[in-house]
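User: Fold this; tokens only.

Assistant: Input:
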Amino acid sequence: MQNSFEHLEFPLWVDGRENLIRLVEFLTNSHLDKMTDVNAPKDPYKLAFIIFYWLGTGSLLPWNFFIAVNEYWNDKFRNTTIPANATNQELSDLQVQWASNLSIASMIPNVIFLFLNAFIGHKFRSQPRLLAALVIIILLFTFSDVMTQVNTDTWQYEFLVVTLFTVVVINIMVAIFQGGLSGLAGKFPPSYMGAVVQGQALGGIFAAATNVIMIACGASAVSAAFPDFLIAVIFLISALVAFVILTRTEFYQYYALGISATEKANEEDEQLCNGGGDNQDATKTILKTSTWTIFKQIWVWIVSVFICFLVTLAAFPAITVLVKSSDTETEWGTKYFIPVACFLVFNVGDFLGRMLAGIVQWPKSTHCGSLFILALSVARIAFIPLFLFCNAAPLNRNMTQVYIESDIAYIAFMVVFSLTNGYIGSIAMMYGPKMLSNGEDQGRAASLLVSFLVLGLAVGAALSKYVVGLL
């Protein structure tokens, strides 16, 4: 089966003389799938594509909902000796450090288990791992939802420890789920990996938009946390059901196992007749590509992804969530600024960046193209001082000063910051695995890319504490 598309040419635009069907095929990457394998079974009604999108959305939903309800955490960790309605009060130490603590508790266990998945995950079946991880995530997220109704003012530090422990376990399960899902999607045609990464971005939009809608419907920024988390739990349950449905399709069996259902039955019968096919298994083991060999073939994409997401987590949300609006007299500045300007703008921009990568697919998958993406990743480091110079925690400044108070400037930075994050990550995830021709190697390459992506997130999260210290 030949899934490589390194020699294909992708236009930067669609000729106006082409018909509408051609345009739709281009936008959905379906032209790539058609060139993959003419003998492959069809994906009826794009069901598998939709489910991969759905699973991609669910894979980052816990993280997205935890960071979206920022005012809920501010209320939980506020200085209880000061009236809640007091204006222009300094943030407590727990409030200032919460976003950074959340990032560290999320990303460190995530990267450890994603690396374990990259190196040994292929030795275990994907289906049981994904199902077990989803069930545990649902149970723990339900616990977090219940805790929104518990008064923790007299035991804030204990609540912090319990919450961070829950976050650690959830993200271990997320790592198992995300690594397995990406490895699985890497065996499918290119657009299915695109569905996963675009779905992850859509999860951020879903979480941020849900929070904004709840606030617009009259809920306070604090009370909105309960319905937000409840919606996340319902979505994750639906993702669990969708994955079970996916595993029963012939399309899934063909790409996940490398053979059709009929061929699988014939092969099993033949192995029984030949005494189990031990010689074939031994041959497959001998021919298996080493992880180091795979790494050497895609190292530029790996480094690009690592730096890109390191920069993202060093600034977002640890610094960006502390920025205050210059408009303190209206609901925009007091209620909607962070939910919209920080979380919604970032997630929409990230999603559009990933969509743009699927449409434009530039630069090409060449050495020069990979170096350009790497240079773009490095250039994003400039966003860290830019956000520091914005109106972040203006009453808690010790080392630096506020130079940019404008809400418009902050939003403009956030737009470019999020677009480049989505574009670079998506291009690397699409091109990296397809540098290898074997389906199993593509799956392992995808897991490696995800591992270094999350390693970048983990290092960025660790650095975020020091970045916050520069305020």
